[in-house]
Every structure is written in C-alpha cells, then in structure tokens.
Amino acid sequence: MKIQCKHYNTIWLKKGDSKTVQVIDQRKLPFQFEIFNIKTVADAFFVIKEMVVRGAPLIGVTAAYGMYLALLDFKSGNFESYIKENANYLKSSRPTAVNLSFAVDDMLDFILQKKSNSNLIEKTLEKANDLKEREIQFSEKIGEFGLEIIEKIYQKKKGTVNILTHCNAGWLACIDWGTATAPIYKAHLKGIPVHVWVDETRPRNQGARLTAFELGEEGVPHTVIPDNTGGHLMQHGMVDLVIVGSDRTTITGDVANKIGTYLKALAAKDNNVPFYAALPSTTIDWEMEDGIKEIPIELRDPKEVSEIEGWNGSEIKSVRLVPENSKALNYGFDVTPARLLTGLITERGVCEANKKSILKLFPQ
Ligand code: MRU
Fold this sequence. Notes:
alpha/beta, single chain
C-alpha cells in the first residue's frame, strides 16, 4: 500500500496539454495516490467543494486556474458578464478561506484589464502560474522565519522540540513546504531534533491522514493523537510549541482555522505554551476587524460526522459511527481571538497578532 509522491507540487498543468490542470486527489490519501484532471470551471468548482483539493493557499491557486479554464470555455455573447458569473460561481464553492476570493478577484481584474489583448489566454495562464509560484515562495519564507522560533526553543531546551499541529497546513494544503509545517521541515533539514503531535482532526481527519502522511514521507518523527489529547500533553510539559495554519486572519489578528483550533489555543494559553498561526498575506482579510462576528464559517454535511472513512485492506470504506436516528452538526472552522495568539508567522516575518504589528510588516 506504500505510495510514493515525493517532490510533487499539489497542482500543475498536464504535460503537453495546456487545457488540463492536474491535482492530487486528497480524498484518497494516504491509501491511494490518484491524479484528478480539471478541464472546466465546473471541475474546478467540484474539486474545491468536494475537497479533492483543500487548504486555503491551494484552494486559491486552484480557483485561479479555474478562471483560466473559464476563459478557455468562452464561446460567444457578453464576455464581461460571462467571466464575472464564473468568478462568483467559483467563489461560492467554499466560504471561509479568503484565499479563494482573493485569487478569483485578482484573476478577474487581470482578465478584464487585458480583455482586448490578442494573447489574453497565454497571459492569463502566466498569471495563474505566477500566483502558484508566489505561494511557494511565501511558504518557504514562512519556513525560514518559523525556523528561528524552533531554534530558540532548541537552544534553550537542548533536546527534541515537541510541536503540536492541528489539521493539515502542510505542502498538501499549499503548493510546497506548507505553512505550519514549513518551519518543521526547515528544522528537520537543518538537523534540529523535532517531534510533531498530530491532531487527528475530526471529522475529516486531515491530521491523521494528510499531515501524518506528509511527515512520514519526509522522515519527520510524529505521533497521531485524538483531538482532545493536546491539553493533557501541555499540562505535562510535553508540548513546547503549537503551530497551526489559517483560512482567514483579520487585520486585527483573529485567526479562523479548522474547527478545534480555538480549544487548542485556550489550552496553550492556560499552560503558557507558545501558540503561533503560520499564514501567507494572501490569507489576511484586510477588511475584517472582528473575526468572531465577521468571518463566514462553513457548515458542511453532517454525514462527515456521523460516518467515518478508512482503509479496509483493499479499498477506502465509510462506516456509520452514530445511531441511525441521532442528529449531527458539522462546523468546519472556528475563530481563535488574537488575545490567545503568541504571534503570526508570515512571509515577511513574525509579528504580534494585532493591527499595529501586522501593518508594520504589511504597510498598506
Ligand atoms: O477544510 P480544509 O481541509 O480545507 O481546512 C484546512 C485548514 O484549516 C488549514 O489549516 C488551513 O487551510 C491552512 S492551509 C495552509
């Protein structure tokens, strides 16, 4: 069952076919490695909505290629309303990750500005490729700045640095390196002993399935834990640092991330464990001030809670977990207020989770 997928980016153009975008089908990992072909804007919508691809930066870049595919599909009629309709369609695929609307609006502005250019299609593909390359550079920079935090703890502790993470904010959620995992990979590559506590991250188990897979592929020591275990480990000094990702961070430093992140932040605060969110600036919502009031939180199919998926030795199988007549509720994200964060790790450096510090790094 061991599958190999080292050194893949998570999204790329099919060799010799500039009309097909390819991605790793993350619904099948870590049990099967399948490539999913995206040929139309409807395919791009589907892979985001059904989580063939997931993770804020990758959702954004996939939507950017979706706009390119929409352009390829234009036949006749009012071009401007056609491309705006497709932009709104793509933006409606998932509500919380702000990278989605940023990337779509960026592509839309670009396409409308250049709509009379004869090489609009080539230029639009280039633009989508640039957004992809930019996310790789942002992730690597986040890795470098986050490495300094791990190094400081290592110098003080002179032993394995135990890092807890929630969900998957790895290269599978981005294009390469990841956000929360980038400092971990940098430390590991530098020979600093690290060990990762991987929250399973119910109900879709992105931690147990994707983060554990990634870390295993890179040879990083890790242990999968139930989501409710982190607080106990912190009380017993077994966690030196928490690093999570983000789907949308307000200009004031409130962080929306996978459901359960807020509870980890509360435990970290109560046990004086440093708690960082790692995120590119494409995940900062410059318009929002109050995360709990303003950030749209995705409500997904309750079936994701009442059933659980796994490998039965020959195929991926779903089994029912709860009594037939019991109701389930499935919020996908929660908001960690800025006051619970030690800081934000961005592509321009580490800052405190407040407006003054964020704007110092990103002067508008
Ligand atoms: O529902 P998902 O799997 O898209 O949620 C992903 C997360 O919450 C990640 O932590 C976040 O998108 C950051 S990815 C670098």
